[in-house]
Amino acid sequence: MALLPHDVIREDRADGAILLRARAELPEVAERTTDWLEHWAEVTPDAVFLAERSGDGWHEVAYAEARDKARTIAVGLLGMGLGPDRPLMVLTGNSVAHGLLALGSQYAGVPVCPVAEQYAAIPAARARLDEIAALIQPAAVFAEDGFALAEVFEREVFADARPLMAHGPGLTVDDLARTGGALDVKVTPDNVAKILMTSGSTSAPKGVLTTHRMLCTNQAQLAACLPFLRERPPVLVDWLPWNHVFGGSHNFNLVLANGGSLYIDSGKPIPALIGKTIENNRIKQGTIAFNVPVGFAALRDAMKEDPGFARAFFEDLDMLFYAGASLPQDVWADLWTMAEEAGTQPFFTSSWGLTETAPAAVLQHEPTERSGVVGVPLPGVEVKLVPTDDRHEVRVRGPSIFTGYLGSLEKTAAAFDEEGFFITGDAMRFVDPADPNQGLAFDGRISEDFKLGTGIWVRAAALRLEVLGALKGLAQDVVVTGEERDEVGLLIVPTPDLRDVAEEDDAALIVDALPIRAKLAEFAGGSAQTITRALVLSEPPSIADGEITAKGNLNFAKIKQRRSALIDRLYDDADPACITVGGR
């Protein structure tokens, strides 16, 4: 498999900052995302581009058909009065209609803003939908099922927006695809292709203005580091949501830029839907597997029970790529062994980036045998590591990095330092300080760290990952606490098995403390690593109350704010729900 070797130039500054960049030059970059579609529609017109489940098989759309439909959709959108300052908002998840509509928008120079589908589907979460719509001010709103979301279309915030749907009582994407007339619009690299909302895990969601230049540069960077993408068109069976930069920009465009095929997986790595993902991967094998760690863990468990599924999954796989969090080493090792038993060894890797970075800014494009390494700067990206206590905060600049948030000059100005580097708030460390080519490892978000009342820093993000590994089978997630207190504690989101054997006590659960106490007793090594107490939550985190972000991650600040009374109980040794650790 063709991979570009790491070759990093390092510059150490007198102020302690470290600059990193790839020696390789940025290759030629397409001007517009739709240039890829035009190219493949001519070169491989009958090759499958997008597909979704239909009965026992797949409804497949070839490149030439997708190009023709997207262009006519673009004419229809312009005829509705949409334009650079009159965007399209998408309320539902991944589908062929969504993909064609997004490409039609990009042909027309109309920004498309996909939002988390739960904001429309869950009535209690619609206040967040209203908040985003007030910022975006869409001229049109799309939902897959116009019947199911009819009442959402009628919300006051959409009074000036035209409803669109894949099927329903109103104007459909198929109607737009039958629009007559020529497409006469000039789209430049600096036109906004998408407005992507940040997760809102550290502040209110912001609209990231994502240009064609950013998206096209990022794919050129990836192809330069992973040349095998150009040698064999990638095939994905992918569930990752298009409202998020991983699924919607990185994966969707990786397929489009390289003439591949994207089979839309209607499953998700949650108990109710993981069966669909397993079924889809059984009937269609991909050449690249993208997922978050919990998704790979679920697939690993299914493959352990069915070696035939494991062989089918790995038999044609070029790359296994995780992002969103560090892949537990036991999951990595199990998948590695299964691949060897299947007679293959795909490239296992990860990268790092944010919504503002298009997303990939750092990529591990050499083989490694350990999880948690995110790699080196992509060609054209400059990384600045700024010393912060015993770590380095990572900042980036380059043509794939955004230049502003929608409607907020103040937030935009605060996002960049005096040299124009985007201040990410993430921390990094060198795998080997003497050799930058060994890559960088993610070391948590600085904003999640806090000081105990004793003045000692707690690396909350790193500690959380370690605790989750120890509490496997007991905790779905945990929130690390201790700000302004003398001891580190945990709020535990229980697994269904733990919840089933617990007794509720006013928003907390009374559980058998022995298994939790035994696992947490392993965490000792100074007050910043020693967990002295835990409390199990009876009420799961609420997306409606902002405790879960659009990416499905916990919003730790919101949870701590909303559940401050439970944190008080956590630090009360006499409370029956408080599990004390270490002989306390």
Q: Classify the secondary structure makeup into a structural class.
A: alpha/beta
Tell me about the biggest sheet?
11 strands, mixed
- The number of distinct β-strands equals 29
Question: Biggest sheet, strands in spatial order?
Answer: 1-2-18-19-20-21-17-16-15-14-13
Distance between the termini: 55 Å
The value of Rg in angstroms is: 24 Å
Q: What shape does the CA trace take?
A: globular
Enumerate how many helices there are, as a single number.
Answer: 20
Give the fraction of residues assigned to helices.
25-40%
Give the DSSP E fraction (strand runs of 2 or more residues): 25-35%
Mean pLDDT: 93
The parts where pLDDT drops under 50 for at least 5 residues are: none
Could you please describe the fold and organization of this structure?
By secondary structure, this protein is α/β, with parallel strands linked by helices. Helices cover 32% and strands 25% of the residues. It has 20 helices and 29 strands. The protein has an 11-stranded mixed beta sheet.
Features:
single chain; 584 residues; alpha/beta; 11-stranded mixed sheet; 29 strands; globular
Summarize the structure.
With 584 residues, the protein is an alpha/beta fold.
Helix and strand topology:
Elements: E1 8-12, E2 18-22, H1 33-43, E3 48-54, E4 57-62, H2 63-79, E5 88-90, H3 96-108, E6 112-114, H4 118-121, H5 126-136, E7 140-145, H6 150-153, E8 162-167, H7 173-177, E9 192-197, E10 207-211, H8 212-225, H9 228-231, E11 235-238, H10 245-257, E12 261-264, H11 274-283, E13 288-291, H12 293-305, H13 307-314, E14 319-322, H14 329-341, E15 347-353, E16 360-363, E17 373-377, E18 382-388, E19 391-397, H15 409-414, E20 422-430, E21 440-445, E22 450-451, E23 457-458, H16 460-470, E24 475-481, E25 488-494, H17 496-500, E26 503-505, E27 508-510, H18 513-520, E28 531-537, H19 556-562, H20 564-570, E29 579-580
Helix pairs in contact: 1-2, 2-3, 8-10, 12-13, 12-14
